[in-house]
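Thread: "does anyone have the structure for this chain?"

Original post by V.I.:
We have the sequence but no experimental structure in hand. Need at least a predicted one for the grant figures.
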Amino acid sequence: MQTVCVIVAVNMKKNGIKKGTMRIAVCGIIAALSLVFMMMTSLVPIGTYALPCLAGILISCIVVEYGYGWAIGVFCVTAVLSTLLAGDKEAVIYFIALFGYYPILKGAFEFKIKNRAVQYILKFAVFNVAAIGSFFVATWLLSIPTDEFTVFGFYVPWAFLIAGNIFFLLYDYAITVFVMQYVRRLRGKIFGNFHK
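Reply from O.Q.:
Generated one for you, tokens below.
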């Protein structure tokens, strides 16, 4: 990724290409990388859950560089192409229902709302609505058998929801760590003077 962005940036500077074109190129690269993660979901055993998370985390780079509008565009492009091309449709539902747009929403919550308790109430509300909605879409629309939510003969979707809330807290923290490391260590190496 670093090499591709640097090559694109250098070529754009040499050719006098405007910042808008640079934004489109970077957003295209991030959308393509997110799509690659989504297309790998059917190849990796835990890909249904892990790879949509990684695809979403990449979109947080666009929030940092170009703002919410461009990030929403990258999310929409990735969501549409994932729906058409990704083999694991359950992973696509998870990406569309939460993991793809949550890094964008997280930035908005943390930037606009100063009260941390209110931030976390809103974050967990978004997660729980998305998780419950995804459960019903996955079981009804995709006909995912209910035995996937059965452990030792007990139907335990609520236990999965509780575990999901714990995982979501870790996901929220992972986005924070990724964005901090991206800004401190990677941003300058990838973009140099071209990121503004």
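V.I.: this helps a lot. Helices lie at 2-14, 19-39, 47-66, 68-85, 89-99, 102-112, 116-141, 157-191.
O.Q.: and The first helix runs from residue 2 to 14.
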